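Researcher: I'd like a structural prediction for the single chain below. Treat it as a standalone chain; there are no partners to consider.
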Amino acid sequence: MPDSTIDNILESLHSLQAELETEIDKLLQEKRKQFRYTLIRGKVRFDREVRKLQRRYKIGSLKYLASARVGHILIAPVIYSLFFPLILLDIMVTLYQHIGFRVYGIQRVKRSDYIVIDRQHLAYLNLIEKINCSYCGYANGLIEYTREVGARTEQYWCPIKHSRRTPEPHQLAGNFVDYGDADEYKKRLHELRQQLHQHDNS
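Model: Treating it as a single chain, here is the predicted structure.
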């Protein structure tokens, strides 16, 4: 497939992505009205009557544990054993970008855009479910955050496509130089680095 065709498809995809983001924002606004909650400085606020209704669906922690499958309980320590490595990853990635990105001149990734912990505000969840949901939100948000830091680093230092495509390359990879194209790499490296100065999180 010619490069121009791929470029056209990528341009169409970016346009569709922007359109999709707009529609998702509209849907979120509708859902906030439907389930009667607002975001005030990033914090969730439910109507009092909604919280009262949510509590009717809550299963107490003891009853929740009593009805849980044995396998789920036994595997919990394995899942939570990742907590400290995740904290270490968070600290190291954050330190790296605050030091390294300043040196490289790369716009830093806003951590709070990726790590969202808000499910503890749902009154239909018991304490165990809230802890589990907060952990999942943190872990998966951290991976997204780390991926974006890594993507910007890769564009700065080695913006070359691989010889084979991975299942889900990060969003910057499509703009990298073709594998084996030495001339284009030398021509575009500075341009690709400059793009990172204006790069935003949207």
